[in-house]
Design goal:
Three copies of one chain form a homotrimer. In chain A, a hairpin with a 6-residue loop joins strand 19 (291-300) and strand 20. In chain A, strands 2-5-6-8-9-10-11-14-15-16-17-18-19-20-21-22 form a 16-stranded antiparallel beta barrel. With 349 residues, chain A is an all-beta fold. Chain A has a single domain, classed as Porin (Beta Barrel), CATH 2.40.160. Chain A has one helix and 22 strands. Chain A has one helix at residues 8-12; strands spanning 2-5, 20-35, 39-46, 59-66, 70-85, 91-101, 113-114, 118-123, 126-131, 177-184, 187-194, 197-201, 208-212, 215-224, 227-236, 245-255, 258-268, 276-287, 291-300, 307-318, 321-331, 338-348. The first copy, chain A, is globular, with a radius of gyration of 22 Å. The longest helix of chain A has 5 residues, at 8-12. Chains in contact: A-B, A-C, B-C. The interface between A and B is large, with 64 and 71 residues. Strand 1 of chain B pairs antiparallel with strand 2 (20-35) of chain C, so a sheet runs across the interface.
């Protein structure tokens, strides 16, 4: 027997009546993905001298094998949101996401996975998230810009290598962190803190130590007319070594059917191959009623920074469905350049 | 606080209004399952000479222990379907299934699992599935016939050993494949293609190789009056060895309260113990308003082909619930024969 | 596109019309948890002399590292219930729970998990559960009493060490067992049986053996006016050794804004460090319209029995949301005492 949940337009209007509710939303997408010289890398591990798996003297080896360049790509995403509103108008919500992606390395299917939960309190312009949260960068206006392709395989941020706090889907539970956001007039401020620890078990398995790897970041956003400017800074506790950090400045603008973004970052990863400046830009243009053209470019001055340049298009089919595709080129100073392209359908539900 | 989703009858009628929706459906079943000489087989693995787990020189050992013949059997199945319909009437849908089964080897419980996602496009008589799909055999009319028992433990296909492309539930993500189906008048045609690769890591873990294991199959079905005839052929790329293949012919008919199926297959597995012809038949008879009697028989001429013969019954309790049970005998030329039986309740939701 | 499920009040009224339905319910909670001297224990394992993982000669080592005393604590719980009612008024239902908790050892996030399924048949005062069920203790009136804290970190049962059949959430599939409950007038009776087996693989991996570890328990409950008295007894098949058992007597009473419970148990674990008598009590007092004060105390006379004493409060925010917190002290004859406290918000959906 089939149970049906209606689309939201009708029901949302009356949702204010309900003190508590559970809602579902998501999308499906599938198509063909091409990546020049696609390969599968496999890491195998062994117990090492102490005969115990998971200790500091474990041994490992990595190998790589060529796989098919063209594979079936897909994603199923379902957001599960539980919400409650107090008598005083404070909104509480909790989200878990169910997601299935293809294995991009070899084109095989993966099981759908549940991620870590995110909890929110919202009151007026204030929002506090806890758990598997997005930090100031992941939430920053125009950080991602106009990404290209069914799979959003290219973006203006491609030169950034700093690992900032971001919302995790699929296999990863994400960090257990806190994010604050406050919006007042044309301004918005964000800040996050991730209390992280890395545990290492010494050879022999009888002693283990925990090292702090805390991360924090802050952001400010200003919107004037059709332009949004945003800046963010974040830093990770590097333990005995230097603390990696990231500074990002973004600019976004809309002029009728055209929208564009600019991106520049100081990517202080404290690793020579990726340390330096990163920059990029993106643009979208609505060509008639149903078609959107997209362009993005990202780069960085470090040897291992990925340069991405790509063009794409979205054709709206109505009912939340669209055809999407893109083609681009990935390169870096120390890699072979590779052509990437995809095409397929996406539909919201 | 409890949220309720109504049964579909009322809501389906208006579902055409909604451009996008998420629906849930499924069933639960539980009861007692008996299998003569039930045993649990355990495979343990070790790293082998190179000290690395997951390489070609891994070692393994298999052992078996007797467990209780009578156990609690159960299944919880929930299909999660997201759908969208374009302005042009093309229907897109995506499914992930949540399923929990008991561990049949020892009668312990298993966690519910999410399988790999299936995506579909449907327009008129044409249907294209991608991802974790059922192929031409799994979709073939009367392939399974009237299976017997609460757990459907016996079927007319029991002599078939070829591993065809089938929809996977539970732990398995399934294959990432494509299935096409086209129906026109009394005819229907199907075809599937599964681009599969097997990766092997050499001892030492520093090199890995990928071998193609692509599968394809085609089918044709013709319905005339109360009779349906179907034929399907499929083949798997065997690499350096011969390519295993399967040819199946089925016939199904309904005469009032009686329905029956016939099954014959050329099971060319390219393995002596299972290579040969397989055949079977099944029947169902509605005895009064609420009771259905079932019979099935399957066999094959290879030494390791399983012969299954079973009788069963379904008693409808109304409201989508029923009592179900069956008893049968499994045998093969090189095995001990075993009696299998089960009884319990199933209810749809 | 967002799909909304309304809160149940309106819909439940008409639910009797539907023969089958799927419903969702749950809660979110998050806050700060403090535990003095919080530490993470890590167990690592190796293959041992036979070079095979999972056999009787596996070796292991345990280590412990200090982690942050104050961490972000949280839980996301979603119950998924499928139900059907027969023409004769017999109700069938099946439940799977999706739950995400923080990792209490180190404050990191965990993925949401699905547990094992529970199936029920309900007819009049009779209820039969199968699968991942709660047994007679887990279902016993006033067994848990008034637990304290956002995370319910303290309870009157703290001196009990016997492992009884209980409903499992998260990673654990639970036992595959049966529970019967029958209510008639002021009396209720319960009984459960868990057919459990433990498989051990001998060194070398070529032989394995299965040992019975069956559990059963029974209970009786009597309610007279505002007082409920309950007694339960359960036993586990200890194989060659003695059979551990547990006897529990509880008493609960409500007088206007006050409710209290008493608890005494014979905890015959057959292990010297935990064998003996356990006792406890708890109380709750409604202070005005929105505030509830809580107190609990649990203890036992064995050396390793945990003594818990804690006070807490709940402040109702309306709409199913509340603020909750508690502070207490955990101790035992052979441990360092530790202060535990938490505070946060909980909201039902």
């Amino acid at each position: 027997m089939k149970k049906v949940l209606f689309a939201s337009t009708a029901l949302i209007a009356t949702a204010g009546v309900a003190a508590a509710e559970i809602s579902f939303s998501g999308y499906g997408r599938f198509g063909i993905g091409y990546l020049e010289d696609r390969a599968q890398s496999t890491t195998v591990t062994g117990a090492g001298a102490d005969g115990l798996m998971g200790t500091a003297d474990d041994v490992s080896a990595v190998s790589s094998a060529d796989t098919d360049d063209a594979i079936l790509v897909s994603r199923f995403r379902l957001n599960i949101d539980g919400t409650a509103e107090t008598d005083g108008g404070v909104q509480f919500s909790a989200r878990v996401r169910m997601q299935a992606d293809e294995n991009a390395a070899n084109g095989e299917a993966n099981n759908a996975k549940l991620n870590g939960a995110r909890f929110s309190v919202i009151y007026g312009g204030l929002r506090v998230d806890a758990g598997n949260v997005a930090g100031s960068f992941d939430n920053l206006a125009n950080y991602y810009g106009n990404e290209v392709g069914l799979e959003l395989f290219a973006g203006q941020y491609s030169g950034v290598d700093y690992s900032f706090l971001s919302y995790q889907s699929g296999d990863s539970a994400g960090s257990n962190a806190v994010f604050f956001q406050y919006a007042v007039g044309d301004f918005a401020f964000g800040a996050s803190y991730d209390q992280a620890q890395v545990t290492t078990v010494a050879a022999g398995g009888l002693t283990s130590t925990t090292t702090d790897a805390d991360r924090w970041d802050v952001s400010a956003t200003y919107t004037f007319n059709n332009i949004t400017a945003a800046v963010a800074y974040g830093q990770t506790d590097g333990g005995a070594g230097s603390d990696p950090s990231l500074t990002v400045l973004t600019l976004g603008a809309e002029f009728g059917d055209f929208s564009g973004t600019l991106f520049v970052a100081d990517d202080a990863t404290e690793v020579a191959a990726t340390d330096g400046t990163a920059w990029g830009l993106s643009a979208a243009y609505n060509l008639g009623a149903a078609t959107t053209l997209l362009f993005t470019y990202g780069d960085g001055n470090a040897d291992a920074d990925t340069q991405e340049i790509a063009v794409g298009a979205i054709y709206d089919l109505g009912g939340g469905a669209s055809l999407r595709g893109g083609i681009g080129r990935n390169d870096c100073d120390v890699c072979e350049d590779r052509i990437q392209a995809d095409f397929g359908a996406q539909f919201n539900f």
